[in-house]
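Lab notebook, entry 225. We have the chain sequence and a SMILES string for zinc ion, and the next step in the workflow is to get a structural model of the bound complex before anyone spends time on docking refinements. Request logged below.

Task: model protein plus zinc ion, output structure tokens.
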Amino acid sequence: MGETNGHKAADADGRMGRRALLIGGALAAAGTAALARDELSRLWWRMPGVEKPRKEGEVDFVSARWVAASSANWRRADRPDDYGIDMVIIHVTQGSFDSAVKVFQDPGHGAAAHYIVRKDGRVTQMIRELDVAFHAGNREYNERSIGIEHEGFVERASSFTDEMYESSARLTAGICERYGIPVDREHIIGHVEVPGTDHTDPGRFWDWDRYMGLVREARGATTPA
Ligand SMILES: [Zn+2]
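Result returned:
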């Protein structure tokens, strides 16, 4: 997985800017120190470096069921404040749902994704979206993305069911909505498209046209008119 500590400071400096600037602007516009203090107490949790409150078992996608991954397979973060999220990465487990849950709970595995979508469409969340999951095999891509696993095998067309496509598309549409991510193939990619990877998932049987259509449809349904 090659997590290097060396460029962490540079990353933080480079990416922290956007939210801090927005808040700074709002404070400046507010004018008086009293107003600024009031704003600041309301917005403290948006500030980079301040950890958001978390509740055990809380999920980011309403219909997801929570099963915690081993904390060795992800890194605590405060996204999107410390790292912006602009990408969804699609994976295939190369095994059953149960075996994927098992390896993501294994501290020796060194990898896990935020979500697993089962054949029957059931969504399980194992890592919070604010945290960095080790799923892409590329530090920068891990920091900027949400990883979604799909139960099945890349070489088995029957792995990818209607229920799976539909609920995964709703999940991805929700992520795009939450972080303002464009619904296109630049921002919704397969693991195979991550620079430097030797993984092939989701593979040739994954129907991208169908999936993107479903995501667009679901995204449209969640966009206020
Ligand atoms: Zn993968």
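Notes for the group: The helical segments are 8-30, 33-43, 97-104, 139-144, 162-179, 208-222. Worth checking against the assay data. Strands lie at 65-66, 74-75, 87-92, 115-117, 123-125, 132-133, 145-150, 188-190.
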